[in-house]
Backbone:
């Protein structure tokens, strides 16, 4: 004997973006805070030590922002011209910045005036940074040279003039105090060792290099330039590992998240893409208002700061972790109520009476079980079901049609209910998954209520709406067919003449697949 | 001499019964099933014994009221048998002579039983007679002392009932009720008005009597139950009606004390009425299928219902479902065909509505029933039910594809479902559901069977009447957090000149797919989905196609509507041979090269087993059965059977099963009749005498008699282009223009065909016979054979414009000719 089988509600897989752990994680930010700077933001750098202030380089100023402040807590403005690339030292106490006026300035984060000035570049300096031994600074300038400076003596240690174009980006290795890399507009990334007189390795990126990044392990190198982000294996002598082409404009900045599992890239196409560093697939992307120049992520991914060409600084803070305390507060029965009697093992002479499992049926199922079709239809026409789960309503309608009682269930309704029904049908009949059933329903309604047309303005209006919806859908379908026809001709032109008859089939196949895709 | 017969497997044809014997805690359920009576233990749920001995259908069984360990059974073969059912021994056999349709044994009448027999001289009239059971020694006794009790009774055992203390007998037929009182010898007749009331017709369907009171309950075709009282008086009788059923009441039963009345009908709901009032009733709903019989056990504790789908349900007295006994379920229409589950070797076919049953042939038991449609089944006339129409298993049985559609012709609600066998739950779980896979009915479906490549290469092909075939492939889901790792989606849609696709079939290695489009068979490459070649044998649509297996994998077999069986060679793309045979079923054996073809001609089914490489059959069985065979299946044997006879070597690895249009499942046995009957034979021979198989005659006889044998064989297997010249022209004219090569190719063939060759004639006639002849005729016939082969080989090849290897072949033939000449010269010595 079979139990009553509930109505099968056909779940449709949701199209579009799939919810993954990543989307949940990266969506967990508050609405962004917008701060207006004086010019395009060319560099954002987080202090590596708490409270994780960040330095924003824009125009001729460097602003230091606190974690939650919207006003700069400190400003370095003693630049004669535009400042570039303000970078913190590993201990967060020193800050170095290049400048359009060819000098490099070293600041104490607590002081105001520069501690040291490094003069030597003949052109603006766009790249400065500390080596990981904390006592040396590397720099790259528009004079095609990259230099190494000693902080205590403020003297130049060595100068490399190997690039053939502007040096615009670079970074130091965290594992080796002598190694740093620079990227240049001459399409190359060069790896320098301070102990040697020339570059150790040259990597051909293929486009003007806008940003480079070394993984914390020092083994992988990421370069961005043009529309490409490329990952290179340094230990294998600069072998290309993967080339990512997910932006449609120049990629300007790169950044790793705190765990090193995700790589972020910002581009002039207003997007920030987040890649998994294991599969190098895009797992999430952010959308911004204007082209992005710089990007930084605070430790623990607490804050995402994005600088844009129009001088707007976009700061996103992470939402605090939701606490489940409120739900936990609800007092639950003691543990022993659950295990009460459960531990009893029946003896051999005991007669076991099993408690029948109570099956929970939805309201419409209960009504359908007792063949109350009209009431079952009423149950699924209630607004919550009708609005949020239209598939349930349609499934019940289909079941009623299968039982042959749909007509009687639809008949004998008053103005309000007919209005409700027609609203539903007019709205949903164009959805492909509901169309077959709702066309039948619409037919029946028009059949049943045809004699009373004209007696109620509301119902008449709904009928007109239904007509409009169907007319619109027909036009739309015609347009789609036209597009299919055009595509067919396009496919036909790709085909070689020799095996015409075979390919004819194939092109049919392609369009058919497209059609089926549309259907489901 | 061994002779194979169609064997009827035990299927409970009609289980009429005597319920349960009252020996708590041991209870037995006895039921008639076909020609046997089965003894089933209620406690242990196993079949304890099989009472066999009747030569025809057992119509009724009754416990001996004087000895509860004995059982009376009546059969259409005109005998009443008294059994000791515990030991399964017949005690006595009473021969009555005429067909016995129902049997009643009464406690009051010790030496006689009542039976219903057809009235002599009149058709469709039956009478209730009492048979005096003579007491004698011996086992076989005569029961010829008949005395008529009632005339004009119904043929069904349900239409007669005996009243309280056996003082009266009630019989219903159409709208008449007659009550006969034994003591008073009084016959009272009552009749209902024949005028159709608004509820439909009120004819009687069944009758029971109250065990303690004078009350008769009758069931009616319009769903009413009437309770008759005071029927001693012709005029002053009264009746009240109980009405719940919406359609015919199939059977009624009173409880032991008569306080409860059980009724059942097509709604498959068991209704329990209390105190004869219509307000108090209990229901046991959803019993699966219409209830045909209700029976109470003699101690009143259990109740059994017999259903139309060959199932018995045992129900507790408090109306709780207890258990069910199930054989092969009869469904209305086996649309799925006979499919063999590779995992369990069970036969898979339509079961309950919307279910797929897995039926174990070894144990005659239903293994399990898989709910495919997953919808509440509502029995109502005129309702469009959706049912299962196609089933396919993957090679290892890990995937199952099912197609269900509603009965509506115009807009079938098609659903393609793919099920994955999960090892943990040991059952199939739904993986993918595809709504509207085709715009019209799906005609065929098959998996690509590739054992060595594993499940990743699985491909499913469906063909539809919407003129396309679709290829479905598994798509892995890269997201590790997704609920399931694979799903199915459409990969390719192919069509051919807007013809309806009718059949599809993969070659054994999975590299080729054959799809038939009405008259044409198309062969596709399964890697690139390119059309490789087409075959056509006009006129007539292709009915069945299949690829040859193992050594014959280069052949493609097709059967057409106009009664042709064609074999195409895939290497030469030419017709190898064809035969005139109205093939209904074409079934390849998965374990050997053999292909079974069942033909339907002049009201009898015949079986031909052949290898595609040879145009003559390996085995012929004419007149296999009188019913039309609709489906066939090869079921692999667990271990190859030792078969002595040469004739049945093709049955060594697998067994052949048939399903006829009367829903009988039959098999072909290799053992002789005697061998089969010696063990407690569960099988029964259908027929005794069979003509000598033409095949054996064919083998033994000489060539001279060939003409006669040809007529004997009806339409023998004919070689392609037996008549000279004209077939080439015929083929040229009949083949659709798009299949033909260019005219320049055809010109030479056409002209050649008009030339008359002399030595041809005799050679071709004998061509098929020659090789089967013993070697004595070899010297002369071989030469002819060679010439015949030459003719055959070149012409179809030329037809399709492939002339590449012709020269070398002819050279080879020259060489062979010389060699054979040599041989003949030697043999002369």
Residues:
């Amino acid at each position: 004997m079979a139990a009553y089988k509930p109505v099968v509600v056909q779940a449709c897989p949701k199209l579009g973006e799939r919810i993954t752990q990543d989307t949940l994680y990266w969506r967990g930010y508050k609405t962004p805070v917008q701060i207006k700077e004086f010019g395009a933001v060319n560099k954002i750098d987080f202090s590596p030590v708490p409270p994780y202030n960040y330095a924003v380089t824009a125009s001729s100023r460097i602003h230091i922002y606190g974690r939650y402040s919207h006003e700069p807590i400190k400003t370095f403005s003693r630049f004669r011209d535009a400042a570039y690339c303000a970078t913190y030292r590993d201990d967060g106490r020193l800050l170095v910045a290049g400048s359009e006026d060819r000098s490099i300035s070293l600041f104490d984060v607590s002081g105001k005036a520069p501690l040291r000035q490094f003069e030597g570049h003949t052109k603006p300096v766009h790249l400065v940074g500390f080596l990981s031994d904390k006592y040396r600074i590397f720099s790259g300038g528009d004079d095609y040279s990259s230099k190494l400076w000693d902080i205590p003596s403020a003297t130049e240690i060595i100068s490399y003039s190997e690039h053939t174009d502007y040096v615009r980006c670079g970074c130091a290795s965290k594992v080796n105090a002598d190694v740093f890399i620079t990227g240049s507009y001459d399409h190359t990334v060069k790896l320098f060792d301070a102990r040697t007189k020339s570059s150790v390795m040259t990597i051909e990126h293929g486009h003007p290099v806008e940003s480079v990044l070394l993984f914390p392990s020092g083994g992988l190198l990421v370069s961005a330039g043009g529309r490409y982000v490329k990952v290179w294996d340094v230990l294998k002598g600069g072998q290309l590992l993967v080339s990512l082409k997910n932006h449609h404009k120049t990629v300007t900045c790169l950044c790793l998240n705190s765990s090193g599992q995700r790589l972020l890239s910002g581009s002039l196409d207003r997007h920030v893409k987040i890649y998994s560093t294991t599969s190098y697939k895009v797992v999430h992307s952010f959308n911004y208002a204007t082209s992005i120049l710089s990007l930084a992520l605070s430790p623990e991914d607490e804050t995402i700061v994005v600088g844009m060409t129009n001088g707007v600084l976009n700061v996103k803070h992470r939402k605090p972790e939701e606490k489940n305390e409120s739900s936990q507060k609800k007092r639950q029965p003691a543990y022993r109520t659950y295990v009460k009697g459960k531990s009893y093992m029946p003896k051999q002479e005991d007669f076991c009476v099993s408690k029948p499992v109570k099956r929970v049926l939805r309201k419409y199922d209960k009504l359908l079980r007792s063949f109350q079709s009209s009431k079952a239809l009423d149950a699924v026409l209630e607004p919550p079901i009708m609005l949020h789960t239209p598939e349930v309503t349609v499934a019940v309608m289909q079941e009623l049609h299968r039982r042959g009682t749909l007509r009687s269930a639809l008949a004998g309704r008053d103005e309000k209910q007919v209005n409700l029904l027609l609203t539903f049908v007019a709205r949903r009949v164009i959805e492909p998954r509901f169309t077959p059933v709702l066309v039948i329903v619409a037919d029946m309604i028009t059949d049943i209520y045809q004699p009373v047309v004209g007696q109620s303005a509301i119902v008449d209006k709904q009928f007109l709406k239904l007509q409009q919806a169907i007319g619109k859908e027909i036009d739309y379908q015609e347009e789609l067919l036209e597009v299919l026809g055009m595509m067919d001709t396009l496919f036909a032109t790709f085909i070689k003449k020799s095996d015409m008859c075979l390919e004819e089939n194939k092109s049919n196949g392609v369009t058919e697949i497209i059609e089926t895709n549309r259907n489901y | 001499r061994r002779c194979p017969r169609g064997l009827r497997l035990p299927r409970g044809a009609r289980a009429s019964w005597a319920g349960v014997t009252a020996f708590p805690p041991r209870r037995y359920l006895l039921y008639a099933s076909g020609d046997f009576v089965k003894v089933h233990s209620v406690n242990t749920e196993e079949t304890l014994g099989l009472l066999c001995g009747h030569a025809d259908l057992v119509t009724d069984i009754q416990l001996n009221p004087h000895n509860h360990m004995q059982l009376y059974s009546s059969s259409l073969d005109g005998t009443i048998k008294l059994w000791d059912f515990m030991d399964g021994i017949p005690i006595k056999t009473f021969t009555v002579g005429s067909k016995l349709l129902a049997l009643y044994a009464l406690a009051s009448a010790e030496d006689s039983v009542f039976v219903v027999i057809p009235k002599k001289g009149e058709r469709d009239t039956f009478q209730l007679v009492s048979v005096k059971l003579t007491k004698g020694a011996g086992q076989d006794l005569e029961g010829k002392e008949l005395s008529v009790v009632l005339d004009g009774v119904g043929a069904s055992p349900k239409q007669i009932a005996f009243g309280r203390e056996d003082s009266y007998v009630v019989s219903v037929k159409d709208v008449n009720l007659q009550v006969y009182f034994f003591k008073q010898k009084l016959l009272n007749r009552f009749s209902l008005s024949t005028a159709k009331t608004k509820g439909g017709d009120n004819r009687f369907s069944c009758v029971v009597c109250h065990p303690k009171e004078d009350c008769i309950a009758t069931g009616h075709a319009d769903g009413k139950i009437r309770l008759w009282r005071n029927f001693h008086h012709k005029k002053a009788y009264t009746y009240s009606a109980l009405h719940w059923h919406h359609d015919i009441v199939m059977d009624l039963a009173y409880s032991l004390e008569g306080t409860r009345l059980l009724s059942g009908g097509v709604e498959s709901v068991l209704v329990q009425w209390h105190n004869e009032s219509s307000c108090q009733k209990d229901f046991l709903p959803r019993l699966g299928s219409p209830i045909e019989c209700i029976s109470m056990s003699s101690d009143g504790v259990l109740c059994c219902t017999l259903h139309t789908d060959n199932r018995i349900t045992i129900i507790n007295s408090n109306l709780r479902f207890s258990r069910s006994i199930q054989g092969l379920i009869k469904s209305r229409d086996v649309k799925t065909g006979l499919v063999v589950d590779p995992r369990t070797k069970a036969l898979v076919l339509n079961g309950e509505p919307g279910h797929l049953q897995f039926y174990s042939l070894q144990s005659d038991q239903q293994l399990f029933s898989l709910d495919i449609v997953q919808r509440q089944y509502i029995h109502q006339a005129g309702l469009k039910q959706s049912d299962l129409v196609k089933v396919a298993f993957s090679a290892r049985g890990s995937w199952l594809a099912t197609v269900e559609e509603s009965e509506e012709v115009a807009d079938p609600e098609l659903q393609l479902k793919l099920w994955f066998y999960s090892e943990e739950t040991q059952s199939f779980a739904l993986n993918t559901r595809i709504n509207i896979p085709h715009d019209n009915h799906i005609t065929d479906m098959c998996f690509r069977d590739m054992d060595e490549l594993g499940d990743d290469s699985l491909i499913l092909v469906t063909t539809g009447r919407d003129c396309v075939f679709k290829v479905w492939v598994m798509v892995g889901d890269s997201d590790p957090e997704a609920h399931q790792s694979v799903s199915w989606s459409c990969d390719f849609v192919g069509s051919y000149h807007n013809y309806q696709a009718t059949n599809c079939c993969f070659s054994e290695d999975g590299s080729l797919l054959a799809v038939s489009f009405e008259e044409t068979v198309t062969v596709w490459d399964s890697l690139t989905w390119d059309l490789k070649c087409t075959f056509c044998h006009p006129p007539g649509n292709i009915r069945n196609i299949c690829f040859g297996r193992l050594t014959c994998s280069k052949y493609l077999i097709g059967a057409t509507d106009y009664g042709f069986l064609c074999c195409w060679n895939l290497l030469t793309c030419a017709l190898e041979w064809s035969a005139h045979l109205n093939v209904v079923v074409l079934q390849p054996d998965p374990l050997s090269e053999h292909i079974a073809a069942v033909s339907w001609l002049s009201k009898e089914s015949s079986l031909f087993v052949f290898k595609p490489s040879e145009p003559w059959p390996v085995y012929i069985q004419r007149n296999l059965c009188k019913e039309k065979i609709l489906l066939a299946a090869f079921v692999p044997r667990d271990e190859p059977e030792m078969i002595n006879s040469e004739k049945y070597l093709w049955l060594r690895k697998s067994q052949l099963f048939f399903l006829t249009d009367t829903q009988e499942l039959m098999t072909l046995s290799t053992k002789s009749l005697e061998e089969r009957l010696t063990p407690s034979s569960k099988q029964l021979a259908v027929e005794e005498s069979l003509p000598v198989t033409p095949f054996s005659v064919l083998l033994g006889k000489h060539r001279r008699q060939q003409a006669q044998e040809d007529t004997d064989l009806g339409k023998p297997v004919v070689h392609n282009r037996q008549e000279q010249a004209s077939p080439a022209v015929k083929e040229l004219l009949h083949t659709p223009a798009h299949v033909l090569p260019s005219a320049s190719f055809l010109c030479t063939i056409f002209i050649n065909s008009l030339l008359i060759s002399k030595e041809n004639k005799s050679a071709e006639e004998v061509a098929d016979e020659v090789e089967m002849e013993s070697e004595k005729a070899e010297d002369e016939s071989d030469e002819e054979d060679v010439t015949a082969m030459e003719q055959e080989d070149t012409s179809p090849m030329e037809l399709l414009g492939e002339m590449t290897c012709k020269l070398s072949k002819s050279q080879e033939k020259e060489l062979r000719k010389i060699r054979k000449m040599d041989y003949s010269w030697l043999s002369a010595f």
Observations:
- The longest helix of chain B spans residues 778-799.
